Model the fold of this input.
Amino acid sequence: MAGVALASLSSGTGELSFLALTHYYGPFSQAAWGSGTGAAGLIGAGYYSITTTTIGLSVKSSLLASSILPLVMVMDFFLMLPRGPLRNTVSSQHRDEGLEYEEGNEDVLDREDRGLLADPLER
Done:
């Protein structure tokens, strides 16, 4: 029962963290987050059903195979999401505090701001 409680706590914390980040990416991100949350329930249940019945994996093997998904989420955050909205918030906080924002790497920063989801023609 403690495992279920810890899984629920970590799931809720993750949901709140991602929902809080939608503030930086506009209203479309909230719709995408909601759709993704709903789809995750369907896909997760379907994945478990298919791996345990059709493919014939044991429950343990099925759950171990899906344990890489948190790593995929971390990679998605750092590789796919554009960092511009987050960086702009940090740089405005630095201005408010009277700190200098480092310059000189505009080209690298510009590419990082767009992320993998940007229009390929803009890269």
Q: What stands out?
A: The mean pLDDT is 77. Residues 53 and 62 are 11 Å apart (CA to CA).
